[in-house]
Write a structure and sequence with these properties.
Distance between the termini: 16 Å
CATH superfamily: P-loop containing nucleotide triphosphate hydrolases
Bound molecules: thymidine-5'-diphosphate
Strand content: 5-15%
Helix content: 40-55%
Number of domains: 1
CATH class: Alpha Beta
Order of helices and strands: EHEHHEHHEHHEH
Length: 206
């Protein structure tokens, strides 16, 4: 079982992914929390490249680099963990590439889908939390200096947000859209209730 947490930069998804991993800490074997891009030696190197403000990288190269980092994560980390029976929590996954490089930058959605299907195979999320909030509110929350993606114009982030909402409307069963303006504790509670209802066996069932 793979659960992903998605949203625009500043939506608070990293906090919620971490809190969910904490809430599921009692599981045996324990859940695995991964972040994208990254999570492997090569993946962290690719992340640095992708977020480097000094570099100009074409849209297609970006799509390939995110897919390459994902391929490493699948082979080295997610695949073995799934085999070992662990629940996986992904801080971003394929939907990020569709939203950012597809809707945000105008990349071809079918190509992104095909490429990533080859990379992840059957290891797709069965539940995805989308933390949604207005772009201006998210921008105000982001600390420090903007990276290569964050520094893009507001219109880009608006397209990413709308893209995410469209992806959610295409797969209503998988996505849960959450109002990310709620407090972290409120969000944690809603996410926990959904995970208990949809992913965990009822009490008393082994
Ligand atoms: P993230 O870890 O959310 O950023 P931060 O560490 O600042 O919280 O993600 C890094 C950036 O990569 C983010 O701006 C979104 C971008 N991204 C894409 O554009 N496409 C992708 O496929 C992925 C996984 C991330």
């Amino acid at each position: 079982m793979i659960i992903s947490v998605e949203g625009i930069d500043g939506s608070g998804k990293t906090t919620q992914a971490r809190l969910l991993a904490e809430s599921l800490g009692h599981l045996e074997p324990p859940p695995l929390l991964v972040r994208e891009p990254g999570g492997t030696g090569a993946g962290e190197g690719i992340r640095e490249l992708l977020l480097n403000r000094e570099l100009t990288i074409s849209r297609e190269t970006e799509i390939l680099l995110y897919a390459a980092a994902r391929a490493e994560l699948l082979t080295q980390v997610i695949g073995p963990a799934v085999k070992a029976g662990r629940l996986i929590i992904c801080d971003r996954y394929i939907d990020s590439t569709l939203a950012y490089q597809g809707y945000g930058l105008g990349g071809e959605l079918d190509w992104i889908r095909d490429l990533n299907c080859r990379v992840v195979g059957s290891l797709t999320p069965s539940l995805t939390f989308l933390l949604d909030l207005p772009v201006e509110r998210a921008a105000a929350r982001r600390p420090g200096k903007a990276d290569r993606v964050e520094q893009r114009e507001t219109g880009f982030h608006q397209r990413v947000r709308r893209g995410y909402l469209e992806l959610a409307s295409l797969e209503e069963e998988r996505f849960v859209i959450l109002d990310a303006l709620q407090s972290p504790e409120e969000l944690r509670q809603v996410i926990w209730e959904q995970v208990q209802r949809r992913c965990l066996p009822p009490p008393g069932v082994e």
